[in-house]
Every structure is written in structure tokens, then in C-alpha cells.
Amino acid sequence: MNERSVRVRVPATSANLGPGFDALGVACTLYNEMTLTLTHEKGLHISARGEGAAYIPGDERNIVWKSIQYLLQRADRAEEFQGAKIRMNNRIPLSRGLGSSATAIVAGLTAANAIVGSPFSRDDLLQLATDIEGHPDNVAPAIFGGFTVNTVTNGHVECFSFLPRIFMRFVVMVPDFYLSTKSAREVLPSEVPMKDAVFNVSHAAMMVAALARGSEKHLGNAFEDALHQNYRASLIPGMFDVFAAAKKAGAYGAVLSGAGPCLIAFAPEHRKCTEEVAAAMQEAFLAHDVKARPLHLRLDTKGARVLHRKESSVKKK
Fold first, then answer.
1. Which family does it belong to (predicted)?
2. Are residues 116 and 38 located together in one domain of the fold?
3. What are residue 147's DSSP bridge partners?
4. pTM for this structure?
5. Is the dihedral of CA 118, 124, 128, 130 positive or negative?
6. Which residues have a Cβ under 8 Å from the Cβ of 104 and sit 6 or more positions away?
7. Residue 39 binned pLDDT confidence (cut-offs 50, 70, 90)
């Protein structure tokens, strides 16, 4: 009897990017890796090390396992593979706004898809991942890499992934506290003024145009937002001061990463600038009694990848 194993790597992501609420995302060079072995016998063995390992469920509640099961059911292979061995090596901080849950979903789907012969395309995986996650802004860049523009029309998800003509680095400040997506969503209003909606449509469009065309001068105000950051500011002490400090130190702009509490600055491609931006953001956070550590990241251009495949024979006892 054969067991099939694959090892996959999935990038961290940042969603919204300021004005692109639930629509824009970016993949970053920080990765979780997972090795999946599907077994014909029932039984679930999950191990995790690294970021947040102590908080990751080791049973049926695990989101990686749920995603694997979802794909197997859709592929009509759930009866064939009833158990799994899952080993996770996590580098992406948990519950910080860097797409850790999306990474888990995409890892499970990508690995299971590879094991059963890749019946689903990346577009198919995007739809499955969005079904699980509820919105595509994190799962899309995790699958495709690059900057992504995502739409959902009558339940159908589409993603346009592109590489910007402006080379930049990302400075991510990771505060020393957690913030659940649920809590960050609860502070948002159910309706917003028309002027705020227009503000965000125009700024999100300007950002995509500036990145695609390579126009740095049009990025200066493109990261501004009126739909979610104002409402979430009370959850992250000093947020707007940190944004201002990043821009003053040379960043194009800074935004809340996903639902937070991480903040991400988009900086020109030279190391001295990113170091100055990181120091300025760290100092601004400290002024509000928040300790934060910097991550210096670049754009991931590949998205989720299968790193290794293995098939081995297992003798029945």
C-alpha cells in the first residue's frame, strides 16, 4: 500500500494595502512550510514548530486538515484518503495580520491537490480557498504571489496578479500583542458614507495604476484609506503616528496589514532607507508604550509552491 507525501511552501501576505479593503493583497518573502502525508487508514497526526506552535490545534479543528478534507471531498477522493500526517514549520506570526490562516488554508489545498494528481488549477484553488476563508484578499496572493487585485462576482472569484514596475521593500512592524480578525471586524460599521466609498475606489485605483506604470510620484497619497483604518485605530495605540513616522523617514506610505496589529510600510529599494523607516516606526510605537519588532521583507513572486514529492510503500501489519 502506498503513502504519498508532499512538502509545500506558502508565503505570508498582507491584505487591503490601505484603500483596497478585501480586494488588494501582496505576497511577502516570509514562509510557512508544511509536509503532508495522506494515509488510507483513519488517524490524524499533527505536529507544529515555530511561530504560534503552542496555539495550533492538533486535532480535527485544525484549519489545514479541514482544508485538505474540503479538497478531497471536491475531488471525490475522501473515501480513499481518510487520515493524514501533517508537519508544520511556521515562520509567519500568528494573529498579527500577515495571513497566517490563509497560509494554512492554501498549504492544505496545495498539498492535497498535488497528492491526488493536481485535478484543480490555481484558479480552482482560489475559489476553494475563498469558500473556506470567506474573502480572497489573503488567499489570492498566497496562491499566485505578487500584488493581487481580487474580485468576487456572484460568488465567482477572480484574481489579477502582477509585478510592479517600482522596486520596493516592505518594513513590517510586529507589535507584542495579538489581535483577532473577528475583533477587528466587529469595530467596522455596516454602512459607510458615499464620499468615503468614492475616496477608497479612487485611491485603490491610483495605487494599482502607479505600481503597474512605475510612477512613484502617484504613490504619495495612494495608500490613504477611509473605510476601515479610522475605525480600527483604537485597537492599535499610535497607529497613525507610526504611519506618519514611516513616511517622514522615506517610505511611500504605511498601512495596517490586514486586520492588524502589524503595520506595513512600503519603502524604496535601498537598505539604508528601510533601516531608517524601521527605526522611525519602532520609536513611534514606543512613544505609545508598544514594543514592536521589524521584519524586512521583499515581494514574493511565486506564491504557493510544491517543493518535494515522495511516494513510499507501507506494509500492512
1. Belongs to the GHMP kinase family. Homoserine kinase subfamily.
2. yes
3. 26, 162
4. 0.92
5. positive
6. 32, 62, 63, 64, 67
7. very high
| Domain match, 76 and 221 both | no
String of DSSP letters for 269-287: S-HHHHHHHHHHHHHHHHT
- The number of folded domains in the chain is 2
Assigned C-alpha cell, 164? 510592479
Residues 168-174 have a mean pLDDT of: 96
Confidence of residue 52 (pLDDT cuts 50, 70, 90): confident
Same domain, 184 and 246: yes
The CA distance from 284 to 137, in Å, is 28
CA–CA gap between residue 59 and residue 210 (Å, rounded): 45
Binding residues: 93-103
Band (248; pLDDT cuts 50, 70, 90): very high
Q: Report residue 273's pLDDT band, with 50, 70 and 90 as the boundaries.
A: confident
- Please tell me whether residues 175 and 285 are part of one structural domain: yes
CATH number at residue 183: 3.30.70.890
- Domain that includes residue 127, residue range: 2-163+301-313
For residues 143 and 257, membership in a common domain is answered with no
Residue 317, pLDDT score: 46
Q: What is the mean pLDDT of residues 151-176?
A: 95
Does one domain contain both 305 and 285? no
Query: Does 133 share its domain with 279?
Result: no
Residues 266 and 159 in one domain: no
260, amino acid identity: G
Output the known binding site for ATP: 93-103
